[in-house]
Amino acid sequence: MAGFSLKNKRAFVTGANTGIGQGIAIALAEAGADIIAVGRSSMAETKAEVERLGQSCAEIIVDLSDMHAAVTALEHDWDSSGPIDILVNNAGIIRRADAIDFTEEDWDAVIDLNLKTAFFLCQAFARKAFATDQEGRIINIASLLSFQGGIRIPSYTASKSGLAGLTRLLACEWAAKGINVNAIAPGYIETNNTEALRNDEKRHTEILGRIPAGRWGQPGDIGGAAVFLASDAATYVHGVVLPVDGGWLAR
Q1: pTM of the predicted model, to two decimals?
Q2: From its phi and psi, is residue 178 left (phi > 0), alpha (psi between -120 and 50) or beta?
Q3: On the CB side of 120, how many CA atoms lie within 13 Å of its CA?
Q4: Quick check: is 2 in a domain?
Q5: Which of 35, 126, 167, 222 is deepest in the core (most CB within 10 A)?
Q6: Average confidence score pLDDT of the chain
Q7: To the nearest whole percent, how much of the chain has pLDDT over 90?
Q8: What is residue 10's three-state secondary structure?
Q9: Distance between CA 195 and CA 136 in Å, rounded?
């Protein structure tokens, strides 16, 4: 049976400073991967935890909303430190307003980071891998809003629906070329992006009441799925959008 070890693998994880990105980086490190933690603010906490696990953690500070800067960061690390085996497109933002009032600025900010940067990082990763006939794994962080509409988050829903479609398209194009492209769709996780919902007593109660597991998820709950999709155990898994949602979509 194929194993879950990621020993001698290098993982480029965006938005690794906190929340789901941090949870994934730590889980990959526990499985043996070295981490390149990428984001716009300090990832000292993630770095310390990864190194405590005995793995290396390079820290790259970059504004991921700038697609060109993000791609340059990946390419520079690959050229200077060696091939990257795993790309995790986790970084994302959310803007909340009624659709009737939603601004162009909020639309562009979310789409640029959540969808545009994610695509071009995938492209940069694949170009590097194809140039040396290297296999690789791409894990995009989608959302329940890849399946559902939601309310008051039009650009976020559009970006996550788009990311799910993009995951399937890239899997169709790249599966035979040695790159597995899959996505994880987290449910309601306790992160900065859901703080507004958790502080809204009515919405918090409504959401919690629908989750069969009876609790909001923790960032670490996403880590196991990421290790699976990054490992040899998922060699024949392509184009999947895997919900990790406490049973939300089952209800």
Answers
A1: 0.97
A2: left
A3: 18
A4: no
A5: 35
A6: 97
A7: 96
A8: strand
A9: 34
Q: Is residue 251 part of a domain?
A: no
CATH of the domain at 83: 3.40.50.720
Is residue 156 flagged as an active site residue? yes
Residue 36: inside a domain: yes
Distance of CA 110 to the CA centre of its chain: 15
Q: Is 200 within the bounds of a domain? A: yes
Number of domains present in the structure of the chain: 1
The tens digit of pLDDT for each residue in 15-31 reads 999 999 999 999 999 99
- Sheet strands side by side (includes 86-89): 57-61, 34-39, 10-14, 86-89, 136-141, 179-186, 241-244
Question: Are the C-beta atoms of 169 and 175 separated by less than 8 Å?
Answer: no
Question: 156, 174, 188, 216: which one is catalytic?
Answer: 156
Concatenating the DSSP letter of every residue in 37-96 gives EEESS--HHHHHHHHHTT--EEEEE--TTSHHHHHHHHHHHHHHH----EEEE-------
Determine the structural domain holding residue 236 and report its residue range. 10-244
Confidence of residue 193 (pLDDT cuts 50, 70, 90): confident
DSSP string, 89-153: E---------GGG--HHHHHHHHIIIIIIHHHHHHHHHHHHHHTT--EEEEEE--GGGTS--SS-
- What is the per-residue pLDDT across 100-117, written as a single tens digit (0 to 9) for each? 999 999 999 999 999 999
